[in-house]
Specification:
The structure is a single chain. The protein folds into two domains: 46 residues, Transferase, Pyrimidine Nucleoside Phosphorylase, Chain C (Transferase, Pyrimidine Nucleoside Phosphorylase, Chain A, domain 3), CATH 1.20.970; 236 residues, Pyrimidine Nucleoside Phosphorylase, Chain A, domain 2 (3-Layer(aba) Sandwich), CATH 3.40.1030. 48% of the residues lie in helices and 12% in strands. The chain is built from 15 helices and seven strands. Strands 3-2-1-4-5-6-7 form a seven-stranded mixed beta sheet, sandwiched between helices. The longest helix has 17 residues. The radius of gyration is 19 Å and the shape is globular. The termini are far apart.
Length: 331
């Protein structure tokens, strides 16, 4: 173990097995806090490789608590976060639109880390349960085509590094890993990341893990969402290949600035306006982001998916679904 820490601290790239050894040591407490911090910073400074990200994700998936289910054609819309722009909870809104369409959603997420309101925060504000026990989680999922999988409950091993990550005050390899660790192992995913220059690395890391049916995207203007104001770059990991394309919002609607929230109350207000179809611009934004999920599931083209999502929002179907989910009591 000491030799691996020394190797990475000297700026050397680790192979797959070395990273697995390193991260098992990190999660089990075999490596000191100083050793963990120095290794994470050394990797960050020289730049993590796709193989290193894939190996780290493999270890964390081995340590996670699994959400066991028999559902098929499931999807997650979890992103990495970390763009620091405090936007509307786009991927969370998309997950509710998908559930209203009858698609089974395994929504992985957490409370806000760098923004104002995380996925767990907004769902708590709305009254959707985020911390159900195992039995009630399955009941809720079966009744609603939706379950929120609160990250800290399913990744207890990460408690060992939480303080170190907080003390470092910089993004490390761990910031890439969240969307790769869904406890329910969904069949499809859309993943937003906050750095377009890391798209190829991220897609290649998914490919190394033999992951499939995943769209990864990042906008030119720095959002981990499909932007309403600029081009979004996309990597589609499918059938062992990576397809590159771009999404220009002007092909769907007149461009507008991405919505920013400044508090939980403000986030809830905008979220409800969006879901209820009362804000035309925000409805368009959510419909476009939903279209990417429908596309990766092979259900619609981007244009078709945009109009399909927009229609069910405007018809009140998503709002009705949200109200049902809020009122339901898991038993």
């Amino acid at each position: 173990m000491h030799s691996i820490v020394q190797k990475v601290n000297n700026g050397k790239i680790l192979d797959f097995d070395e990273v697995k050894t390193l991260f098992n040591g990190i999660l089990t407490g075999e490596i000191s806090e100083a050793g963990i911090g120095s290794a994470l910073i050394a990797m960050k400074l020289r730049g993590e490789t796709a193989e290193e990200v894939a190996a780290a994700a493999t270890v964390l998936n081995e340590h996670k608590v699994k959400f066991q289910h028999s559902a098929t054609k499931t999807i997650d819309t979890c992103g990495t976060g970390g763009d620091g722009k405090s936007t509307l909870n786009v991927s969370t809104a998309v997950s509710l639109v998908l559930a209203a369409m009858g698609i089974k959603v395994l929504k992985h997420g957490n409370m806000a880390q760098s923004g104002k309101v995380g996925s767990a925060d907004i769902l708590d504000e709305l009254g959707i349960p985020t911390k159900l026990d195992e039995a009630n989680s399955h009941t809720y999922f079966n009744n609603n085509n939706f379950i929120f999988l609160f990250a800290p409950h399913y990744h207890p091993a990460l408690k060992n590094v939480a303080k170190i990550r907080k003390d470092l005050r910089v993004a490390t390899i761990f910031n890439y890993l969240g969307p790769m660790l869904n406890p329910g192992s969904p069949d499809y995913q859309t993943i937003g990341i906050n750095r377009a220059d890391k798209l190829d690395l991220y897609a290649e890391a998914l490919q190394i893990q033999d992951r499939d049916n995943i769209i990864v995207y990042s906008s030119k203007d720095g959002y981990d969402e499909i932007s309403s104001s600029d081009i979004t770059y996309v990597r589609h990991v499918k059938e062992g290949r990576i397809e590159n394309f771009e999404i220009d919002p002007s092909n769907f609607f007149e461009k507008f600035p991405m919505p920013v929230v400044n508090s939980k109350e403000n986030a809830k207000k905008l979220f409800l306006e969006t879901i209820e179809g009362k804000n035309e611009q925000l409805t368009n934004l959510i419909a476009l982001n939903t279209a990417a999920s429908l596309y990766t599931m092979n259900l619609h083209s981007l244009k078709e998916g945009f109009h399909a999502a927009r229609n069910i929002i405007k018809e009140g179907i998503v709002s009705d679904k949200l109200n049902k989910m809020i009122k339901e009591k898991a038993v």
